[in-house]
Amino acid sequence: MSLLALQQQALLAALFGAPQDASKLIAAYAHGDWARGLKAYQGNGHALAQRSLQGAFPALAQLLGEESFEALACALWHAQPPRRGDMALWGEALPAFVAASAQLADEPYLADVARVEWALHRAASAADVGPELATLALLTTHPPAQLFLRLAPGTAVVASAYPVASIVTAHLEANPTLEEAGRRLRAGQSEAALVWRQGFKPRLRAALPGEAVFVAALLSGASLAAALDQAGPLDFPPWLGQAVHSGLLLAVTTAPAATATGDTHE
Amino acid sequence: MAGIGWRHPHYGELLERAASPQRPALDFIEVHSENFFAEGGAALAMLARGRAHYPVSLHGVGLALGSAAGVDAWHLEQLARLVQRMEPLRVSDHACFARGAFGGQTIHAADLLPIPFHREALDVLAANVQRVQDRLKRSIAVENLSAYIAWNGSEMAEPEFLASLASRTGCGLLVDVNNIYVNALNARLQDAAVDPLASCRDWLDAIPAAAVAEIHLAGHKDCGDIVIDDHGSRVIAPVWALYRHALARFGPVPTLIEWDTELPALDVLLDEAAQADRMARTLAEWEAAT
Lengths: 266, 290
Prior knowledge:
The structure holds 2 protein chains of 2 kinds.
Chain A: H1 3-16, H2 19-27, E1 30-31, H3 34-56, H4 58-64, H5 66-79, H6 94-99, H7 110-124, H8 138-141, E2 148-151, E3 155-160, H9 164-173, H10 178-186, E4 191-198, E5 201-206, H11 211-219, H12 224-231, H13 236-245, E6 249-253, E7 262-265
Parallel strand pairs in A: 3-7
Antiparallel strand pairs in A: 2-6, 3-4, 4-5
Chain B: E1 2-5, H1 11-18, E2 28-32, H2 42-51, E3 56-59, H3 73-86, E4 90-94, E5 97-102, E6 105-113, H4 119-136, E7 141-143, E8 150-151, H5 158-169, E9 172-176, H6 177-190, H7 196-205, E10 212-217, E11 221-222, E12 227-228, H8 237-250, E13 255-257, H9 266-289
Parallel strand pairs in B: 1-2, 1-13, 2-3, 3-4, 4-7, 7-9, 9-10, 10-13
Antiparallel strand pairs in B: 5-6, 11-12
Helix pairs in contact in B: 4-5, 6-7, 7-8, 8-9
């Protein structure tokens, strides 16, 4: 291996590996007072990790408190270092990391909170697609089996055994209140969170009965008829009005929508 | 001639003022390229609006041009798409590394990590810069770092290293005056005999003037045992003095006021940019008179 590659691997190992090994890794390749420099770079990394995750997971940060969230960010930084130079992409592994954390096992809803927040984070930067409301007329001229619904950028469904939408919106929008979200959690209420983008604003609410399955089917490319078949209790006419009004539904087409517009998480 | 770093807290205010009769006189606005790699969304739309008022300079912090592991093809494609969308005035990044092997995979440290000034590092940096320029079909500017670790095995001084890079690739040099001053202050912490201003002037004098595409000015933080280039305060007097020296040597060069932490009111940045402009104008008038 070349000297340059060895020097660079040594610094990466010193920054992301076990702290007790850092000094001897660098000592072989650097001169002068490198220890304070190494400390500065380590501090930069940890601060960046915390700042990046705080931006993507604000509700989780509130739930955990500053000290615990900082420790979580630091732990993820070392366990799953960034792979890309765009820090907006780092954090995708956090929900699974939280789910696997022994320290957080007493609060099992936190992993789903993280899943919802990651979906919101990704929706914010999804490709822009504008509404084509004139296409709604197709609903009156074609049978549902020949129609497909184009949903908003970043649309995703996160199914949860916990009132995850209520928990997140209680922290981000004070709706419902924290007390009410806590009551729903203690009552064992489950929710599927529906995430989409209205204009540039990421949106979130609890899915209506049957809506999570319906949206998941649409996202996987099902026709309107097939999705309604799976949706069970979903009352389509009022859903349609609400979906258009809130920007969830952008267009009706006679060709399957690209499945890449959204995601589902069980 | 001067521009400012356009950061999130100032997005709305600058757009509003740019559309008013009191339009701030800026020659360009600078953003970090990686903050606009998204496929869509509010930030990208905001940048498009900013571009309608001022030329945009795309300053990268993630190409990791000095990485022995090479430039990330994905990163380069995102940058190419952004360049195509925004048609920036300039594209720049740093003479640093961030990518490399760790734990059986290639990671990105998301920092501007220092590189040694030896021939192998120059070969890697030149090859990576060339690859970026070939993909973007334009030259880029490469910035000198504040480096907090000095590698063994360096075979040349930093200005010679950067001059060779410019000569081999045709890239521009982005001279960060604050960075060389921070490096000099840190060198003095280890050797009291170092004269920071004199060493910085020597550094500037060794850079080929024709290669300089842009100058950066910023504040830094003295932590006692180390000086950090935190971009969190006004440019201090010694850095302004070095800027005057750089202008005398390089001529009028586009200059950026960088401010990334503890952002002040927009007017503070505009005031710093105005000072840079005044300094350049005074020097030009003096040279014309003599």
